[in-house]
Design goal:
Number of helices: 12
Radius of gyration: 23 Å
Order of helices and strands: HHHHHHHHHHHH
Structural class: mainly alpha
Length: 252
Amino acid sequence: YKEAAATYDQILNEKILPARVEEVSQRLSASLHLAGDYARSDQVANQFLQQYPESSLRVPVLFRLAENAYFVALAAEKKMDLPNRQAELAKLFDEAAKRYLAVIEKGGEFEKLSLARFGLAMCHFKKGEFEKARESLDKIPNGERVGELTYTPYLLADCLLRVAPAYVQGAGETRKVLELLELAAGHLDGFITANPKALEVPDAMLKLGTCQMRQAALIAVPAERAPIIQAARTTFQKIAQQFPQAPQAAQA
């Protein structure tokens, strides 16, 4: 990617392709991003937006700006000695979220629109805004939840479990929580089935078993509760059998 960026720079500096400056500039921003030079990628992208405000390549450039901000935030998150850590991380993820929103608002038929939604969801997730993260993930079509987006159902389930209240009062609240748990369990089951070798499978299975336990605890009729308890037991047994070395095996 560094070599690609250097070549695109040469093409622009030597004016080798004057009719394709717009395209080369967009690709330069992308290659700089992929090379990890987020500051320079930002610089090139912002220059592009100023020079070509009506360009058909505007949205891909906005997407690179968003990705730059997100990866900068992730890098900062790894620095445990970061001054004013919580406030600084919140600011960085807010900036990335703002840029992803710009992509979504102007995206139209942009091929990476779902990736922008996923990125926005992750920004909310990192800030503990689980309902907002869920809203963004929900808008990713089922047919696109593959490849880079294969973790969409896993994260959706995580969000649902985090927003589900620990205690309920009355039949209405109980019904709502049961619906949330059933939805989360469906997402987790789908993720596990589609990604049997993913590193997150033991954790997904543990969450699935937890969903089933909570569902059973909310059901008053013993005959209806028993099969769900058995399903939870089976889920936990599978973790211990299939992933005996995983930390989740002890919890299971």
